[in-house]
Automatic annotation (TrEMBL):
Organism: Saccharothrix carnea
Keyword Cell wall biogenesis/degradation: no
Protein name: Acyl-CoA synthetase (AMP-forming)/AMP-acid ligase II
Superkingdom of the organism of origin: Bacteria
Annotated GO MF terms: acid-thiol ligase activity
Length: 488
């Protein structure tokens, strides 16, 4: 067993909980849980996992809700050195089965619901938490082992799982105030009551919870996370919000302002925020908007505080390297758009079991983001586009190609072309242009059902337009840039 001060992740988080002994770190309804109580849960659950024979290198899938036990279970699975895969709610069954086939030894769930997943056994949190701990939790992760698989959207047919090692997670800054970049330090001072909801398998949701607890705040579970009600109901000081939800919140505040006097920080993530939307949010909500930029593959790359220029994502911190490169791979000067290549302390280094896509994205210690942008004269990073053929729905990337292939399987469709269109509810949505096999266009409801069953509801087209043939580029290949929602 390594010396305590040399133990890998999640040692820093456990030390934070130990220091928070009698202080509330989680609030769930009327229940308040202290740091010592969460640490005791980690000790008991990790002991239970070891008695089940689980340890370094074993794959453990977590199908959990949002509560203190789920948080403790995540930490316990890392404490035993497992390769942890969190499965977020709402994925189609086909994608869940795929994730649970990624060399998973055991599944941990909230309750003993019978499952038919491809893992040899299912454990429950209720059973594990009743184990008598064999002492304070220890951290057995091996630096080079994969600590966490964070899956991207499943729009390529199956989700890609970003592999992050224990060494990378140990280098992460969430539980180490001395390593916080300036923007995170400013944010941390506002996280007295941080709303958590949706899934603790969300990289953003869980890591800001760790920042909040480290800063002396409390993670407050919002079982009904709608805005602005959740903020007022829980007297929240901070939360994560997507661009579509932010737009709706701003509109609601213009119509009938709710009491948001406790709110000090909204972390906007998942998709770019235009300068106009950014200014409007600051005008209506006040200086509470933090605009984060990152990827599943990298974690946080940069963050704009309320004092940074609207439309930017701030300046990357010193620990993060960003190069803007031209198509030939050479760096470009400030003010010139190019593709972003980045290096972060806690980045993933591969897609699990996918050498081909790994080689496309991870090379020489750099992560190719496939996002376009530039540095302005003051060193602020501005995002201007993307090189990927994707639709961003509710902050999740969905690749157009797999959606097109599924739509083209319908007997009434000869060819299919998918483009992103603005959507007030989801940010972007899928618009499909199809070449029919006969005289009649395919039924939209039938196409939506087909795509939903295979790829999930977020990939289903909101509109279908029949075309005789696609527009062509000079090369003779279809050019989707010439397709627009008004084309008939």
């Amino acid at each position: 067993m390594p010396a305590r001060d040399a133990e890998p992740f999640p040692r820093a988080v456990l030390d934070v909980l130990d220091a928070a002994a009698d202080r509330p770190v989680f609030e769930h309804g009327t229940r308040v849980v202290t740091g010592a109580e969460v640490l005791d849960l980690v000790a008991r659950i990790s002991t239970g996992l070891r008695r089940e024979g689980l340890g370094p290198g074993d794959g453990v899938a977590l199908l959990l809700g949002v509560n203190p036990e789920a948080f403790a279970t995540v930490l316990a699975a890392h404490a035993v050195g497992a390769r942890v895969l969190g499965v977020r709610p709402g994925l189609p069954d086909e994608q869940v089965h795929h994730l649970l086939s990624l060399d998973i030894t055991a599944i941990i769930t909230d309750s003993a619901v019978p499952r038919t997943d491809p893992a040899p056994r299912t454990l429950t949190v209720d059973k594990l938490r009743k184990t008598r701990a064999d002492g304070p939790p220890r951290c057995d992760g091996r630096p080079g082992d994969v600590a966490r698989l964070i899956h991207t959207s499943g729009s390529t047919g199956v989700p890609k799982a970003c592999a992050q090692t224990y060494a990378a997670m140990t280098d992460a800054w969430a539980a180490r105030p001395d390593a916080w970049p300036p923007a995170i330090r400013e944010l941390a001072s506002r996280l007295e009551r941080y709303l958590v909801f949706g899934s603790l398998s969300s990289q953003v949701m869980s890591e800001y919870a760790v920042v909040a607890i480290t800063a002396g705040g409390t993670a407050v579970v919002a079982d009904r996370p709608g805005f602005p009600d959740a903020i007022t109901r829980h007297r929240a000081s901070a939360s994560v919000i997507t661009v579509p939800r932010l737009v709706k919140l701003v509109a609601a505040q213009r119509r009938a302002p709710a009491d948001l006097s406790t709110l000090r920080a909204l972390m906007v993530s998942g998709s770019p925020l235009t300068a106009a939307r950014h200014r409007e949010a600051l005008d209506v909500l006040g200086p509470v908007v933090f605009h984060g930029y990152g990827q599943t593959e990298t974690g946080m790359i940069a963050m704009a505080t309320p004092a940074d220029p609207p439309g930017t994502v701030g300046r990357p911190p010193a620990a993060v390297r960003v190069e803007i490169r031209a198509a030939d791979g050479t760096p470009v000067p400030p003010g010139v758009d190019g593709e972003l290549f980045v290096r972060t302390p806690a980045q993933a280094d591969a897609y699990w079991g996918d050498a081909v896509r790994s080689a496309e994205v991870f090379a020489g210690g750099w992560v190719r983001t496939r996002d376009l942008g530039h540095f302005d004269a003051d060193g602020h990073l501005r995002l201007t586009g993307r090189t990927r053929d994707v639709v961003i729905v509710n902050a999740n990337l969905h690749y157009a190609g797999p959606i097109e292939r599924v739509i083209a399987e319908h007997p009434d469709v000869a060819e299919a072309y998918v483009v992103a269109v603005p959507d007030e509810d989801t940010g972007e949505a899928v618009h499909a242009f199809v070449v029919p096999t006969g005289d009649r266009p395919p039924d939209l409801d039938a196409l939506r059902a087909l795509v939903t069953a295979r790829l999930g509801a977020a990939c289903a087209p909101v509109r279908v337009t029949a075309i005789a043939e696609p527009p062509l580029a000079p090369s003779g290949k279809p050019d989707k840039r010439l397709l627009s929602p008004t084309r008939t």
